[in-house]
Amino acid sequence: MRPALKLILALLLLALLTLAYFANKELNDINKAVAAKKIQREAQFATMIRDACLNYAVEYNRLPPDSDNKRLTAALRGDNARQIPFLSLSKSQLNADNEMIDLWGTPLKITFQGSSGIQVTSAGPDKVFGTADDIVSNTSAKQ
User: Fold this and answer.
1) Rounded Cα–Cα distance for residues 19 and 67 (Å)
2) Looking at the domain that runs over 40-140, which CATH code has it been given?
3) Which of 36, 101, 115, 122 is the most buried (most CB within 10 A)?
């Protein structure tokens, strides 16, 4: 092979490797931005749940009687004494058992903390609770 051809091939290979490096860096940046948006959407969903629970509390003078996801979802969607819907959910926010789910399809954990605090926990992308990627939103009626 001629030296000039070897040089051209080496430069072409170097150019391709450089292009691959920058393309990979760009993809990583995009993935980080997408993950940040998902976390923001989960936080907004937690705020919607909190607001629905607080509106329930205004109507009934207490938080909903149960923080179990399925029963809470039913109560907030209108299965309550006055049949008032406090929360409207899309099909993508519910699983087949009518539980509120996160963006990865895992049922949310909702716990009441005292008379006005609400904690909504998403298991995050790994779908396992108690790991570093969990998204936890603590809210209070005083906010």
Assistant:
1) 52
2) 3.30.700
3) 122
